[in-house]
Automatic annotation (TrEMBL):
Organism encoding this protein: Halococcus morrhuae DSM 1307
Listed EC numbers: 3.5.2.7
GO biological process, one term: L-histidine catabolic process to glutamate and formate
Enzyme class: hydrolase
Entries under NCBIfam families matching the protein: hutI
Domain of life: Archaea
Name of the featured protein: Imidazolonepropionase
Gene Ontology molecular functions: imidazolonepropionase activity; iron ion binding; zinc ion binding
Length: 410
């Protein structure tokens, strides 16, 4: 028998997802009914509550004066780590460059040392509170990459902890293998690339947790050719490719992502018109990470150029020790103010766009009938308040599969 899990009624607006004629498909004075964890119906309150009376629902939520939006899909994070790199934030403000810090054994390599020393339980204890924070800020699906192990044992441990977090925490966690995140100290990129392919990838495939394979295609990290070798080997093992592309220089990662039909190309601060065209043509979702540019003091990616060509983008947090924000609301505010996206475009990029970047547009990121009832309720009458109230959390209540997982019910 179907169970009427939840009815949210009298919302001042419900955002369904991207519209066909308007930037957003949305209803005013609206309700949404959830059966068996999925959206059963959405529309004007009277119409919906006639068919699905709120009093019959396990959870009835009066959302008057509130905006109801799809839960955020944060499609790019390195949220599992250990140690503290806040001093690097201060050093960068003093003029040090991210890549200088990495070249001196800091940055990613410093986190690698801390992760190798941490036990699985310590790693899990680090991750779960971050997931709580993400959830409290409206995120219902998050991608987390490995890549702070750089050896088979620690990469597998990271993926295992990511899976345990997915099992223990209500929000959905998607695992990406990123053995090619940096070149370990005392090793050269070419021989490490061989080890990622020959040692790490077969073990990761055997373990069966990772869904995607990502690589840091960047000057002084992995070349286009090395990145191609890793991603092609990943594909042979059934892992879908993603690429960190054109973050510090324009090296060719975007063209590689297009050529391989990657699910996403991420960062893209230095992508040009040819790159944008190639990604659009190949159906690769550009994932823009304005928090990273903000924390590096770098120029933002040219979101307008992607959007004005008729394309779509995702916006994500890139939460990691170098970009320490779990908040999709903040990323959306930066997308508006720093990348000139409209609040509607930024909201779509943080929900439907993120779902596309994770191959989940068929079930997450919009509130159409049949989709997962992953919902965030904004403590204000319009979705515009998410970026308008920058630096504070506007999310009051979060539902995963229709069940309240954060915040109060009114
Ligand atoms: O996406 N650019 C490479 N990787 C991360 C940073 C990871 C770190 O600095 O620990 C990123 O920004
Ligand atoms: Fe990243």
């Amino acid at each position: 028998m179907t169970e009427l899990t939840t009815v949210i009624h009298d919302a001042s607006e419900i955002v369904v997802g991207p519209g066909t004629d308007a930037p957003l498909e949305r209803y005013e004075n609206a309700a949404i009914a959830v059966t068996d964890g999925r959206v059963a119906a959405i529309g004007p309150t009277e119409e919906i509550t006639d068919e699905y009376p709120a009093e019959n629902a396990t959870h009835a939520i009066d959302a008057s004066g509130r905006s109801v939006i799809p839960g955020f899909v944060d499609s790019h994070t390195h949220g599992l780590f250990a140690g503290d790199r806040s001093d690097e934030f201060a050093a960068k403000l003093g003029g040090e460059q991210y890549q200088e810090i990495l070249a001196e054994g800091g940055g990613i390599l410093r986190t690698v040392n801390a992760v190798r020393e941490a036990s699985d339980d310590e790693l899990l204890a680090n991750l779960l509170p971050h997931l709580d924070t993400m959830c409290a800020h409206g995120t219902t699906t998050v991608e987390i990459k490995s890549g702070y192990g750089l050896d088979t044992e620690t990469e597998l441990r990271m993926l295992d902890v990511i899976q345990r977090a997915d099992e223990q925490h209500p929000i959905d966690v998607v695992a990406t293998f990123m053995g090619a995140h940096a070149v370990p100290e005392d090793e050269d990129a070419e021989s490490y690339t061989d080890r990622v392919i020959d040692e790490q990838l077969p073990a990761v495939a055997e373990q069966g947790i990772a869904e995607f394979c990502d690589v840091f295609c960047e000057e002084d990290v992995f070349s286009v050719e090395q990145s191609r070798r890793v991603l092609e080997a990943g594909m042979e093992h059934g892992l879908t490719p993603k690429v960190h592309a054109e973050e510090f220089v324009r090296l060719g990662g975007a063209q590689l992502a297009a050529e391989l039909g990657a699910t996403s190309a991420d960062h893209l601060l230095h992508a040009n018109a040819d790159d944008r065209a190639a990604l659009a043509e190949a159906g690769v979702t550009p994932v823009l990470l304005p928090g990273t540019a903000f924390s590096l003091g770098a120029d933002y990616a040219d979101a307008r150029a992607f959007l004005d060509d008729g394309g779509s983008v995702a916006v994500a947090t890139d939460f990691n020790p170098n970009c320490h924000s779990q908040s999709m609301g903040f990323a959306i505010a930066l997308a508006c103010v720093g990348m000139e996206m409209t609040p509607a475009e930024a909201l779509v990029a943080g929900t439907h766009g993120g779902a596309r970047a994770l191959d989940r547009a068929g079930e997450a990121g919009t509130l159409r009938e049949g989709m997962l009832a992953d919902v965030a309720i904004v403590d204000a009458p319009s979705h515009i308040h998410v970026p308008y109230n920058f630096g504070v959390n506007t999310i009051e209540t979060v539902l995963k599969d229709g069940e309240p997982v954060h915040g109060g019910q009114r």
